[in-house]
Specification:
Structural class: mainly alpha
Number of strands: 0
Number of domains: 1
Shape: globular
Helix content: 55-70%
Oligomer: single chain
């Protein structure tokens, strides 16, 4: 079997894989459309008088800490680095893109179903380039489940056989989980449910895209 490094990006454009690659980007595009629609709906719903916050045993007892540097800039830097990281490992691209699309679409569904008001005193994202993108994507009112917490766990599951990479993603998830709770921008249930949602999405992706996952598993150990 050829070393992992010999599986180049060019091989994704071979006849047996080009359809899967196009499908991956198409699914990703559809998922972002669904996310945008869900976020717009959630934002409009959050302005209704019937949208009220609920008590939370953790948030009720945690101090409010401004951790926007981690939550906003840290998240965007992690996304950029994560994309580069995956694209430098071409055999992971197809499954990762499709699992990501599934993650975004399922989260959009849950965001559109749950309508809880913003917890009082939560840290405002403020102004600036990254803050503007953050606000546009409506992360502030899309609660269940926490994308900050869940996405790194999904990536850890995809790279589970790579010990150092797995630990890095799990540590990143823990940092984001602590940050969004201390900033009071997520309820504790959003954060605590995220690992279970990520695992469920990973298993669904394995079932829906077995050939793409087999490409990962064919990596020489």
């Amino acid at each position: 079997m050829a070393p992992e490094g010999t599986f180049s990006l060019k091989r994704l454009f071979e006849p047996e894989r080009i359809y899967s690659l196009v499908t991956a980007f198409l699914l990703l595009g559809i998922s972002y459309v669904l996310e945008h629609a869900a976020n717009v709906y959630e934002l409009a719903y959050s302005m209704r008088p019937t949208s009220t916050y609920v008590g939370d045993i953790l948030l009720d007892n945690l101090p409010i800490v401004n951790l926007n540097l981690i939550i906003i800039e840290g998240a965007f830097i992690s996304i950029v680095v994560g994309v580069l990281f995956v694209f430098l490992r071409p055999r992971y691209i197809l499954f990762s893109l499709k699992a990501l699309a599934l993650f975004i679409a399922i989260r959009a569904l849950f965001v559109s179903l749950t309508h809880v008001g913003i917890y009082p005193g939560n840290v405002d994202p403020g102004f600036g380039f990254f803050s503007g993108i953050y606000t546009y994507l409506n992360f502030q009112t899309g609660f269940f489940f926490s994308g900050h917490t869940g996405l790194p766990i999904l990536m850890a599951l995809i790279f589970w056989d790579r010990f150092r990479i797995r630990i890095a993603f799990l540590a990143l998830s823990a940092v984001f989980a602590a940050a969004v709770l201390l900033a009071h921008i997520h309820y504790s249930i959003d954060v605590l449910a995220a690992p279970f949602m990520a695992y469920g999405i990973f298993k669904i992706a394995q079932h829906l895209f077995p050939r793409d996952y087999e490409l990962i598993k064919s990596r020489p150990q």
